[in-house]
């Protein structure tokens, strides 16, 4: 019997929100000030709907999270499998063993990453096992997007179920209030929400609104490119 790596599968199989943001990044009053509109022209309920729609569209398009929110990423397999298989013992330089190119990381889709709440794996019978994150992974909250990287000497936790063998619950966001969100990004939300308001009833396409409002230009430096 020969040993061979598992078939590499694209890791981002499913990403679902667990707990949404408790507040919006901007308030109804802030949107009205931006539009120079009165509470009669733009009531709170309508303003809140516009802000939520704009915020959610930007988050889904860019992959960002403004206010802290909890997400669950489900994947079939761990990434990687680039290391060679062999039987017995192989001698090599320690610098080769610890080469940075051999480091394995799993990127979490929503950013900025705050923390990893739990990691759960499943065997073929769907029995769950909890992974002690601190023992197995280094959690990188500085990178955008954040990532989990195996610690030296650790291996990927065993996950055997055919589908959704790994579940990772994590928190992403700038903080718990609108004051934690960078000012340019709050301005982008106001610009998109204002465009939605000004073009209501005009069969406004969100993608066109994102571009024409100027909000997309603000996020060019935040966009995560896929190759």
What does this structure look like?
This protein is α+β, with helices and mostly antiparallel strands. It is built from seven helices and eight strands. The strands form two sheets. The protein has a five-stranded antiparallel beta sheet. A three-stranded antiparallel beta sheet has the order 3-7-6. 27% of the residues are buried. Mean pLDDT is 87; it is low at 1-12 and 94-101.
Short description:
By secondary structure, the protein is an alpha+beta fold.
Note the main attributes of this structure.
disordered N terminus; alpha+beta; single chain; 5-stranded antiparallel sheet; 20% strand; 8 strands; 7 helices; 227 residues
Set out the fold topology.
Layout: E1 14-19, H1 28-35, H2 44-62, E2 69-75, H3 94-97, E3 105-107, E4 113-122, E5 128-131, H4 133-136, E6 137-140, E7 147-150, E8 166-172, H5 183-198, H6 206-212, H7 215-218
Antiparallel strand pairs: 1-2, 2-8, 3-7, 4-5, 4-8, 6-7
Helix pairs in contact: 1-2, 1-5, 2-5
């Amino acid at each position: 019997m020969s040993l061979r790596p598992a078939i590499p599968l694209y890791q981002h199989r499913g990403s679902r929100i667990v707990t949404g943001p408790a507040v919006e990044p901007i308030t109804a009053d802030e949107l009205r000030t931006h539009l120079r509109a009165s509470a009669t022209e733009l009531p709170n309920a309508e303003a809140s709907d516009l802000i939520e729609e704009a915020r959610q569209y930007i988050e889904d398009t860019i992959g960002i999270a403004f206010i802290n929110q909890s997400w669950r990423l489900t994947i079939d397999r761990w990434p990687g499998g680039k290391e060679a298989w062999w039987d017995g013992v192989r001698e090599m330089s320690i610098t080769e063993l610890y080469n940075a190119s051999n480091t394995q990381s799993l990127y979490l889709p929503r950013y900025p990453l705050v923390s990893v709440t739990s990691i759960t794996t499943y065997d073929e019978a769907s029995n769950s096992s909890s992974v002690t994150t601190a023992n197995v992974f280094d959690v990188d909250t500085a990178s955008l997007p954040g990532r989990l990287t195996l610690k030296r000497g650790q291996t990927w936790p065993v996950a055997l179920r055919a589908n959704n063998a790994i579940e990772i619950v994590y928190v992403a966001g700038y903080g718990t209030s609108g004051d934690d969100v960078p000012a340019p990004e709050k301005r982008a939300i106001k610009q998109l929400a204002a465009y939605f308001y000004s073009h209501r009833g005009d069969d406004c396409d969100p993608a066109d609104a994102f571009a024409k409002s100027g909000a997309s230009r603000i996020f060019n430096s935040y966009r995560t490119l896929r190759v």
